[in-house]
Amino acid sequence: RPLLIALTGGIASGKSAVAQLFDNLGVPVLDTDRIARDVVEPGLPAFAEIVTAFGRDVLDASGRLDRRRLRDRVFADPAQRRLLESITHPAIRAELARRSTAAGGAYQIHVIPLLVEGGRSDVYDRVLVVDCPEEQQIERLMARDKSNAEQARSILAAQATREQRLDAADDVIVNTGTLADLEQFVLTLHQNYENLAINA
């Protein structure tokens, strides 16, 4: 089987940019955020379970899931969040496994933002963490989402700490420089992962 690399990092740390660079090198990249959206499409089992559990008021006018409304509802209530996760997480894991088998390759990158929070590190051959100082995350979040510093800090507080992520890491990309720096980091890791896959 391919060598499996979990790519994680705090919000606005640069995970998407790193994932795109691996993708540009022809590496199979599977993004659990994208899969999470796909498995709750109308007509799929997880969609029906969510509507049964949370009612039709979590749907938008077109009959699809209103993700923002659902997120606001579960963010304020840990029991509701656990209920939602009990529906979505098994569906996401099953679809990730299916896509992983189909994708092949010497190694794969699985983008899992909440890897550390979900305690899934041990499923992977290596964990790659994209890291940057929290103040930089807050600046990027405010610029990206037009949020204020207080909102940005509350989002960060809901995630694993920087230290917890770094403790779980086998490899770290420090994303504080230029895109060229990021490209060089990724290229070096790409060569390392190819060598590891050959020798596994």
SS element count, helices: 10
What is the chain-wise order of helices and strands? EHEHHHHEHEHHHEH
What is the number of domains? 2
If strands are numbered along the chain, what order do they take across the biggest sheet?
A: 2-3-1-4-5
Poorly predicted parts: none
Largest sheet: 5 strands, parallel
Distance between the termini: 10 Å
Shape: globular
Strand content: 5-15%
The top level CATH class name of the largest domain: Alpha Beta
CATH architecture of the largest domain: 3-Layer(aba) Sandwich
Q: Might you state the CATH topology name of the largest domain?
A: Rossmann fold
As a percent range, the share of helical residues equals 55-70%
Mean pLDDT: 93
Which structural class do you get from the secondary structure elements? alpha/beta
Q: Cα-atom Rg, whole angstroms?
A: 18 Å
* CATH superfamily caption of the largest domain: P-loop containing nucleotide triphosphate hydrolases
Q: Give the number of DSSP strands.
A: 5
Explain how this protein is built.
The protein has helices at 15-24, 32-38, 45-54, 67-75, 78-103, 115-118, 134-145, 149-157, 162-168, 179-199, and strands at 3-9, 29-31, 107-111, 126-131, 171-174. By secondary structure, it is an alpha/beta fold. The chain folds into 2 domains: 1-28 and 105-200, P-loop containing nucleotide triphosphate hydrolases (Rossmann fold), CATH 3.40.50.300; 34-103, no CATH class. Strands 2-3-1-4-5 form a 5-stranded parallel beta sheet, with helices on both faces. Helix 1 (15-24) packs across helix 10, helix 3 packs antiparallel against helix 5 and helix 7 packs across helix 8. The longest helix is centred in the middle third of the chain and has 26 residues, at 78-103. The mean pLDDT is 93.
